[in-house]
Amino acid sequence: SLQEITQATHKPDRSTKTNSHRVIRRFSESSDKGWFRSLFVHKVDARKDAHSNLLSKKETSNLYKIQFHNVKPECLEAYNSLEAEVQNRLHQDKDYPCEVVGSWNTWYGEQDQAVHLWRYTGGYPALTECLQKLKTNKEYLEFRKERAKMLISRRNQLLLEFSFWNEPLPRQGPNMYEMRSYSLKPGTMIEWGNHWARAIKYRQENNEAVGGFFSQIGDLYVVHHLWAYESLQSREETRNSAWLKEGWDANVFYTVPLIRSMESRIMIPTKSSPLQ
Fold it and tell me: pLDDT class for 55, splitting at 50, 70, 90?
């Protein structure tokens, strides 16, 4: 006790000093087992494997590509028509092992931006096969030249899907979509995945969970969560209802410290998008 410590420190003999040191050591050890150790209850054990192997789906070998195209404002309508035409042709051609999962224009967030999510069935070999074939496709090369006239900038990422998220399948509309993008601190992807593997169950009641992905090439330690809502009001109600469920607040508490930055896009699907 603290009283024993105080009494021990006022007696100068060696045996008492020794006893006081024992009491302090016992007090320190009990503290280690109490509040100090509790800080690390949720610490993830070290793993001797890449997070891509631990977090991605094993039953599929799908690779995803997400494209962000910043379009000249006066060209957005023409861009959407041109992009839809090429996407439809690739969909119909079975020689290309790729398909468009969804295409959108941003509504709130970065303006005049088009977002496309592609799936390559077969992983990196499928991606390589598509790229090699497109290099010799004259129609596609002409499309790229025409599209370049409409763009201000573009960037992309290669992604894998989290094993615990829904498969992004075509759905009927009308819906608006939110893409929440998180830039994580390096080394925290496993911890993020462990928390969200439990948290995703709180966000399934309204069928709002579309897909969850993490980057492999491009900006690294980036996570994209894709959600569907009937409206902005529906989004607010659905998100608020999650806070009423026991356990959701803990997920937020433990994942927020893992984030370096985050961004939200509200997106409207294009007419040709499989996700409506």
Answer: confident
pTM above 0.85, yes or no: no
Enter the DSSP assignment of 206: T
Exposed, middle or buried, 113 (CB in 10 Å: 0-12/13-18/19+)?
buried
CATH no. of 51-269: 3.30.70.100
Question: Tell me: the pLDDT tens digits for 227-246?
Answer: 999 999 999 999 999 998 88
Residue 213, CA distances (Å) to 44, 62, 160 in order: 20, 11, 5
Q: Which pairs count as long-range contacts for 227-233, CB under 8 Å and 24+ apart, including other chains?
A: 227/177, 227/178, 227/179, 227/180, 227/203, 228/171, 228/175, 228/176, 228/177, 228/275, 229/175, 229/176, 229/177, 229/178, 230/174, 230/175, 230/176, 231/176, 232/176, 232/266
